[in-house]
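## Example pair
The file below holds two records. Each record gives the amino-acid sequence first, followed by its structure token line.
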Amino acid sequence: MHPLALAASASSARPVTGLLPAWLDPNEFLRDPALAPWLVLIVCAFLFAETGLLVGFFLPGDSLLFTAGLLTATGIIQVNIAILAGAAFLAAFGGDQTGYLLGRKAGPAVFKRPGSRFLRSEYADKAHNFFLKYGRRSVVLARFVPIVRTFLPVTAGVGRMSYRAFLAYNAVGAMLWGVGVTFLGFWLGRYAWIGANIDLIFVVIVLVSFVPVGVELLKNRRQNRSR
């Protein structure tokens, strides 16, 4: 039997009582077809906020893309994977473009807000060093580095990177990240074991997704205390 059919069979056969209560189990609260368009919009909003708005650095874009693809494969989110991946690409691409234009228009002043809880100089410095190390490639590579992917587009704009070059690298990065990670989740979600244990996987993904940001915040807090 095809892996997708096995996953659907396992998902429908599993008992309602699983690791999570019904109101938290994705098998129960996400399966309504009427929710699908809204779920796609929520995913896109989160991606755009993380890559285009400086306050979105704490959002777990990687995990969100992977989980959306996985839940689509298991039939929990009832949307065509091509539509989901295309929407993710547009949101990721648009987010980086917004960040770049913000940095280009506002200049270095965008990072000079004393006392701000969000626009911390440590984050800007990390993105700047990443940009200096990898050059134009950083626009693509930063997609896979939490926090850096939020601040690097702005850094590129502040640094007056060629708009045409940024546009091209941004398109490649949005394709590899927005489409690639989504399809990776979709591919893994086609296997029966994934469908049968989706609640456990859902919990693990949620917990793991906040680890990089949590580690970064703790590191910055310790550095501030040592000064």
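Second record, same layout:
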Amino acid sequence: MLTVALPKGSLLRDSIRLLQSVGLDFSAFLDSSNRQLQILDPTEKARGLLVRAQDVPVYVEYGQAQLGIVGDDVLREKQPRVAHLIDLGFGGCRLSVAVKESSPYRRSLDLPAHGRVASKFVRCAREHFQKLDLPVEIVPLYGSVELGPITGMSEAIVDLVSTGRTLKENGLIEIEILFESTARLIANPLNYRLNNDGLSDLTSQIREASLATV
């Protein structure tokens, strides 16, 4: 049976809508009274797993799910061993460097050497500053990263930005964009090569459906 790993959070609704367009219905995950983390499609041809976005590629890499939908930001940070199949086009956001609006910094290179940058995207942040040859301390934070500059713990943050509203409400501004991110369809490489559970045909259907919504 085909298993699809779906991300909790902002990508879930569009992911479910896309899969519905190719005949897989996991809309029960949208029911606030439903606490199930694993459900069957009504046709009983597929199973859906509802997991944290950061865990989607883990389930796919280890074969507990043949397919998954996750943001490119997670893939760049985790660098899992999965097959990258389709840019689905929704869930657009960007990974950016941000600082206090009142600070003198207006680009990454303005930050002081050996200053602190808070982020949950530790790998991506480190790679960004290494490319600039600017030594900084990356402080891992997994909650409200915006508090780093506000409290003075860090000079800057590297975080996902969608509308920019959260930054603005906390007196922060973007000074540099590392990359843009959208939702991606990924697959377990072995299952995809073997075309288990008709993965090739389903992937083609999802590609057509995603293009139709652009």
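Notes on the second record: The chain has two domains: 2-91+182-212, 93-180. The mean pLDDT is 95.
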